[in-house]
Each structure stands twice: as structure tokens, then as C-alpha cells.
Amino acid sequence: MTEEMDNTPFLCSTIVKNGDLVGQIKADILASLPAALGEGAKKYAHLHSNNCRLRRKGIKYLLTVYKDDERIGTDITLPTNVDVFLQEVDDLASLTPIDINDVVLLVRRWHPSEMKLGKFQEILFTDKLELTKHLSRISGIPEENIEYVKIPQTTLHRDSVLNIQNGLHWVSTPQHADDCKLYCVGTLLYYRDSTEQLKELTPEERKELTKKDNRTSSTYSPRKERALKIYLDASPKKADD
User: Fold this and answer.
1) Where is the composition biased (Basic and acidic residues) (predicted)?
2) CATH fold of 1-94, please?
3) For labelling, which of 6, 69, 71, 87 has a CA lying 20 to 30 Å from the CA of 216?
4) Tens of pLDDT along 74-111?
5) Rounded CA gap, 97 and 178, in Å?
6) Cα–Cα distance between 105 and 151 in angstroms, integer?
7) What's the CA gap between 110 and 167, in Å, rounded?
8) Dihedral of CA 222/100/97/140: which sign?
9) How confident is the model at residue 235 (pLDDT cuts 50, 70, 90)?
10) Residue ranges per domain, the chain?
11) Which of 155, 157, 174, 51 has its CA nearest to residue 108?
12) Strand-pair partners of 111
């Protein structure tokens, strides 16, 4: 995912200071786009405070979710210079962490009968959820047929479709957030229906899939994110501020 984040359009730079509320920072950024981008701001006109959020950029994926009610310096510690993404989220309320142990995960369904991966989805993994039940609920796959696999960060979004069905370590073990510390924010999981049969490929289809893997392995962006830089103003507030 490194290439996807590096190629994401830069929006703007802004300065924040200790005590600033994340929700207000986000609102100010959205309000500043017309002046900062001119005509280019039109494609972001659909964004508003209830369908996007700020997230810290990691090396390969998006990290910490900055919640609207958090304050810089009190709830959030930022380095002097930090890259932050403005991430578009369709259902912000259901994907916002509440508890300290809540984790936002990326998931993609593998369709062996079609030899393709489905779209990226985000789920909020909490101690109230069991992973196989949740994957069953969002996909319609019977719970007893759910299998999933964690994708290593070193191969994130670059797996050959020819390797996915039999080359990964699929499991069906029920899993809860409180008994699994393997997942961090931005972890990617593939899941599948264990009863779905693998498509038999002709030599021509196999050759075409190999070509497609080479073309698309590092060019797909999982979500709609907009890059911006936030510079933390750590200086004390002046008396007349």
C-alpha cells in the first residue's frame, strides 16, 4: 500500500496547536479547500464532517483514527511534522472506535469460483464482536463456512490471485478482539466461503491472470483518501490569544 499512499493527491498544509479539537480541525480543513484548491475543490464538494475523518499515515497503511472529540496534546500526541489522511467513510458512526481496544480492519472477500478479490471493506473489530460472525453478517456466507487469513504487511495488496486459494494459511477459528492481539489498525484480512469451488482455468485464462497481476499489483487504492500535512504548533498560547 506504500505506493498507493505516496501517489495520493496532496490537499493542503495546516498548523494545529495543543488544545485544538480534531472535529474543528477537520471542519476548518474542509472549509479551506475552495480557497486552497480553486476549481480543483469541486471534486471534494461532497465531503462534510459526517462522512470523513482524519487518520495518521503509516509506512504501509493508515494508522490511528483521530476522533472528532479528541484534543491535540491531551488525547493525541503528534510529532512536530506528521502526514495525515482525510479519509472518506460512508458510515462514519459504525466505523469509529469507541473503546481503546477497538480496531479498524480492512477485509476483502476472495471468490475462488471467479478467481478474483472483492472490494475493500472496513470493519470495526470490538470485544462485542466475533470475527467469523461479523464476516458472515457482511457477506451472507454461512458462519460455519467462513475462512479467513491475515495478509502480512510485506505483501499487502500484492498477492497473485493464482496463489490466494492454496498458497495462504486459511483458518476458521472463532476470534474475539479481547483474545487476539495480532491485529493492529489497518490490518488486512481476506475471507472466503470454504464450500465455494475453485474455477478451473484454461491456459489462456491463466496467462491473462498472470499479466493482470503484473499490471495491477501495486496500483489499486483500497479507499478514498486525501493526503494532507499537519504541522503541530507546540508553542505555548500567548496571553492575548
Assistant:
1) 202-215
2) Ubiquitin-like (UB roll) (3.10.20)
3) 87
4) 999 888 788 899 989 988 888 898 887 788 888 999 99
5) 14
6) 11
7) 13
8) positive
9) very low
10) 1-94, 103-200
11) 157
12) 116
Q: String of b and e for 91-119 (b: at least 16 CB within 10 Å)? A: eeeebbbeeeebbbbbbbbbbbeebebee
Stated pTM of the model: 0.74
CB atoms within 10 A of CB 52: 22
pLDDT band at 127; cut points 50, 70, 90 = confident
H or E element: which one contains 53?
strand 52-57
Asked if the domains at 1-94 and 103-200 fall in one CATH topology, the answer is yes
Measure the CA–CA gap between 158 and 218, rounded to whole angstroms.
Answer: 6
Query: For 192-208, how does the pLDDT look when each residue is reduced to its tens digit (9 = 90+)?
Result: 999 999 999 999 989 88
Handedness of CA 165, 166, 169, 174 (dihedral sign): positive
C-alpha cell at 120: 475493500
Element (H, E) at 117: strand 116-117
In contact, 230 and 22? CB cutoff 8 Å? no
Per-residue pLDDT, 3: 42
Q: Which residue has the cell 475471507?
A: 191
Class of domain 103-200: alpha beta
Grid cell 476472495 is found at 110
Q: Give the type of residue at 216.
A: T
Question: Residue 156: pLDDT above 50?
Answer: no
Q: What is the DSSP string of 134-170?
A: HHHHHH---GGGEEEEEPPGGGTT---HHHHHHHS--
Q: Cβ of 134: how many Cβ atoms within 10 Å? A: 21
